[in-house]
Write a structure and sequence with these properties.
The protein is mainly alpha-helical. About 45% of the residues lie in helices and about 5% in strands. A 4-stranded mixed β-sheet has the order 10-9-11-12, with no helix packed on it. The chain has a 3-stranded antiparallel β-sheet with strand order 1-5-6. Strands 3-2-4 form a 3-stranded antiparallel β-sheet, with no helix packed on it. A hairpin with a 3-residue loop joins strand 13 and strand 14. The structure holds a DNA duplex. Belongs to the type IB topoisomerase family.
Length: about 900
DNA sequence: AAGTCGACTTGGTTCGAAATAA
DNA sequence: TTATTTCGAACCAAGTCGACTT
């Protein structure tokens, strides 16, 4: 690519780095842990390097998992090549074989983490709160420590329980309940302790709810958990309720049903390669030999594993291995980062501390790629039944509209109105077309369907060829070199023109989103890097910047809202993103140390004489307990949704003696419906805030997000409202996993994880629309179960007969069935029963998850180290939980100590 | 103090490929 | 194999929040 020259520089550096002493490389890590095994590992590593001629190779590996080739150099073996780096991926395969081998390295190694921690810690200390707990550095794990801490920390919600859920759906209930079923008792293992007990806050409330609420779970833990969880409401409810809510907001009707559903029941795929590995850690801890392997010191584990077999409890041990294996791959990346870090590092690392915030030293990329120009199709729409000729521009926009024929937007007057405004402008004043309602876009729509069909019918070779062609064109845009490390670019494609699809009742839905040209785009690139060539001949970029305090590679103004921007950033797997992700979780963990005092402080302020203080206290309480979003002010030209600070009086209903019912549209116009029991002072305060106001007035009239965050910052450095969401989500996962994981096979453990994941999704109100085929799928399952039950009945009859020495009855077709022994029949009956039970469980899970989106929390709220550590402790292959992109995104978390607790 | 700008995270839906069921 | 169904990645809208203005 284009880059050449400069590139060199870069490369050079890299090389050095790689080889260099650099402090951190992934390899190292490995070694430490496994050492013994290492030998093998090492080899591997070495190879890599060789393989690719030096630097490049290193590059590549480093960051993304993908191939990299750097552009510049000659060397570039194509991307694919680098075996080494194989990213994360699957276990299965591949690459690994070699590496895998015996050893398996554990995952990654990152050194960095440590550093971060330190920082954070320091920070903590400085500040007031008493912190106290020690943090365990991830690395070392302190075994015991953890537990205690955690308790306190629990999510508020836990304290109280949520109460009701509206029953709408039932969903709520289900959650809990079902879980039980699935997993029958899971109690907590002894090892873990239950933290809950002590928790002060929780104490306050809690309890009560239990009974009634469906939600309440059995486990004690419940209490502590976030409230929300309880049942919840939200999701399901949604629909039904919509109307209601709408009153206030009137927005989003929710769903009509739509697509997807997935069931939760997933089956595990095969993946596991796992096997190998042992854990890495150094081990240090004391061990306990007991049953739980978890607790067992690493060292031991290792041993165990190594040899292979189980030691005591066989199962456990494995876990470690499993996890690691997959992980290892990821590691590679780290190296680079680190290198850089070295230099820069000090600065960088410090979270935020920093420096003015230099985000990078050298940045190289090829700019962005534009969508192809519009291709005329010549199909005419009918106006009053007559075909109309359109100019290319008019046709392009007409087609955008035609294609949306079967979407729900066609039922929205606002959408049509906005579309007509923009399209009629293109048609011009004297155009024949004067009324959208007289337009029949069917011919264009049908043409579109045909095109789609054609595409679908293409042979796989054709498809493949097309794909490769596309890849070839895009490849140079897919990568950037940041501080010498090749990193994937997130969205290098400029958004194509289209009609704006705002969510909920967005005032601008249907407006034309015009085509973006190079002259709209500002490029940000390293000072010494070559300026990307403008891909459209004859045109040029709007501007070129060299700002290393930001991470964007390019941006343009949003055509719908010119005051806003659309940015091109690096992909989630990049170290720049990984670093900030880690900082986010470290901040949330820091909150653990402060939470007790924060809760005590706001509790005290529930009755403050100062209204503002009281509002801040109550708002903070809601954010903490219900994981509400902050709630910034919105303009009139946006969908009218709310968050905590923007709640309207009508969004909260007081239900004596001390319950609050929330019903509002939040982000993306997703309805939040939840009824919770709150402390009396909160209940009373809300009542006061509501008196004398109308339903559409702000509940917290003395508050906005900047005031709230300014206040939070006084309590803990860097604390903002959103940190509570991260904290609540992660602490909930950590606690649930630790309490409920018990012995069992991998599939059972995965179910436990999914249950915890679901709990978090409910707390955060992460919803999805119901799949169009959901009901059909459910009825099909029901049918199958009925059928199986019939078979079962027949088997029982045959069994009776067989016992009496009679032959089985004829089957439905009248044919004679085989004569089976009573034993064989009994076995069959047992199998059929098991099958029926499994299907019923799967069905229940599917129903429960039909409106719950698990992915969002996994990507944004759950500290991946919790998951990785749990997988290591319980021998669950990490790829059962994280897919390929998550593995890449969380590469920084892969080397966490198995004893890590949030 | 409020409003605006700017950068970056969070979030649901869509699209297409992969996995399964038929 | 074919038809689904499931799953992951892409997409891009919609939030959060700090900094800078007015």
């Amino acid at each position: 690519m284009a880059v050449e020259a400069p590139a060199k520089h870069v490369f050079d550096f890299d090389d050095d780095d790689d080889d260099g002493p650099v402090v951190f490389k992934r390899n190292n890590t490995l070694s430490s842990k496994q050492n013994q095994l290492n030998s093998e590992v090492k080899k591997a590593s070495s190879q890599r390097s060789d393989g690719h001629s030096g630097s490049l190779a290193s590059y590549v590996q480093a960051s993304n998992g993908q191939s990299s080739n750097s552009q510049k150099n000659k060397a570039i073996p194509s991307s694919k090549s680098l075996p080494v780096r194989s990213p994360i991926l699957s276990p299965k395969a591949s690459t690994s074989s070699a590496r895998t081998s015996p050893v398996k390295s554990p995952v990654a190694n990152f050194k960095t983490p440590a550093s971060l921690n330190d920082h954070s810690k320091q920070a903590l200390k400085q500040h007031k709160c008493n912190i106290v707990k020690e943090e365990k550095s991830p690395i070392k794990g302190a075994t015991e420590t953890n537990s205690d801490d955690d308790d306190d920390l629990q999510p508020l919600s836990a304290r109280l329980k949520g109460i009701s859920n509206q029953g709408t759906k039932g969903a709520s209930t289900s959650s809990t309940s079902q879980s039980h079923r699935l997993v029958p008792k899971t109690e907590i293992k002894g090892s873990t302790k239950d933290p809950d007990d002590e928790a002060p806050l929780p104490v306050r409330f809690n309890m009560k709810s239990s009974p009634g609420t469906s939600s309440s779970k059995l486990y004690d833990s419940d209490e502590k958990k976030p409230l929300a969880s309880n049942g919840e409401q939200n999701g399901s409810t949604v629909k039904g309720k919509q109307e209601k809510s709408s009153m206030l907001s009137g927005k989003r009707p929710l769903d009509k049903g739509n697509s997807l559903d997935q069931s939760s029941a997933k089956k595990p795929k095969i993946s596991d390669t796992s096997t190998a590995m042992k854990s890495k850690q150094l081990a240090v801890k004391a061990e306990k030999a007991d049953e739980d392997d978890d607790d067992i010191p690493i060292s031991q584990r290792i041993k165990k594993s190594t040899p292979t077999n189980s030691k005591t409890s066989s199962m456990k041990q494995k876990a470690a291995k499993v996890v690691s294996s997959s992980l290892k791959k990821l590691n590679r990346k780290s190296k680079k980062e680190f290198k850089n870090s070295k230099y820069i590092k000090s600065t960088k690392v410090s979270p935020s501390s920093g420096d003015g915030q230099k985000k990078w030293s050298t940045l190289l990329h090829n700019g962005v790629i534009f969508p192809p120009p519009y291709k005329l199709h010549g199909i005419k729409l009918l106006y009053d039944g007559r075909p109309i000729d359109l100019t290319p521009e008019q046709e392009e926009v007409a087609t955008m509209f035609a294609v949306m024929k079967d979407t729900d937007y066609m039922n929205k007057p606002q959408f049509k109105k906005n579309f007509w405004e923009d399209w009629s402008k293109l048609l011009g004043k004297n155009h024949t077309i004067k009324d959208l309602d007289k337009c029949d876009f069917t011919p264009i729509y049908e043409w579109h369907l045909q095109e789609k069909e054609k595409k679908k019918q293409m042979s796989s070779e054709e498809k493949k060829a097309l794909k490769e062609e596309k890849l070839k064109q895009e490849e140079k845009y897919m990568w950037a070199i940041v501080d010498g490390v090749k990193e994937k670019v997130g969205n290098f494609r400029v958004e194509p023109p289209g009609l704006f699809r705002g969510r909920g009742e967005h005032p601008k839905m249907g407006k034309l989103k015009k085509r973006i040209h190079p002259s709209d785009i500002t490029i940000n690139i390293g000072k010494n890097a070559p300026i990307p060539e403008c891909p459209i001949p004859g045109e040029s970029w709007k501007d070129i910047k060299h700002d290393n305090t930001v991470t964007w590679l390019a941006f343009w103004n949003d055509p719908i809202n010119p005051k806003e921007f659309k940015y091109v950033f690096l992909a989630a797997s990049s170290s720049l993103k990984g670093q900030s992700d880690k900082e986010k979780y470290e901040k949330a963990r820091m909150l653990k140390e402060y939470i007790r005092n924060i809760r005590a402080a706001y509790t005290k302020d529930f009755t403050s004489k100062d209204v503002t203080k009281r509002q801040i206290a109550v708002a903070t309480y809601l954010i903490d307990k219900l994981a509400l979003r902050a709630g910034n002010e919105k303009d009139d030209d946006e969908a009218d949704t709310v968050g905590c600070c923007t709640l309207k009086v009508g969004n909260v209903e007081c239900i004596p003696p001390n319950k609050l019912k929330f019903d509002f549209l939040g982000k993306d116009s997703i309805q939040y419906v939840n009824t919770v029991e709150v402390e009396l002072p909160v209940y009373n305060a809300i009542g006061q805030f509501q008196t004398g106001k109308s339903k559409s007035d702000d509940l917290f009239d003395k508050l906005d997000t900047s005031k709230l965050n300014a206040h939070l910052k006084e309590l803990m450095p860097g604390l903002t409202a959103k940190v509570f969401r991260t904290y609540n989500a992660s602490i909930t996962l950590d606690e649930m996993l630790n309490k409920e994981t018990k012995d069992g096979d991998v599939a059972e453990k995965v179910v436990i994880y999914q249950r915890a994941n679901k709990e978090v999704a409910i707390i955060c109100n992460h919803q999805r629309s119901i799949s169009k085929s959901h009901s059909a799928q459910m009825s099909r399952l029901t049918e199958k179960i009925t059928e199986l039950k019939g078979v079962l009945k027949e088997l029982k009859i045959d069994l009776d007969r067989a016992k009496k020495g009679k032959p089985p009855l004829k089957d439905a077709d009248g044919k004679q069935k085989r004569n089976l022994t009573p034993e064989a029949l009994e076995k069959k009956i047992a199998q059929t029963n098991a099958k029926i039970e499994k299907m019923e469980r799967d069905m229940q899970t599917k129903e429960d998850l039909k409106t719950v989106a698990l992915g969002t929390s996994k990507i944004n709220y759950l500290d991946p180290r919790i998951t990785v550590a749990w997988c290591k402790r319980h021998e669950v292959p990490i790829e059962k939980i994280f897919n390929k992109s998550l593995l890449a995104k969380f590469a920084w978390a892969m080397d966490v100590d198995p004893d890590f607790r949030f």
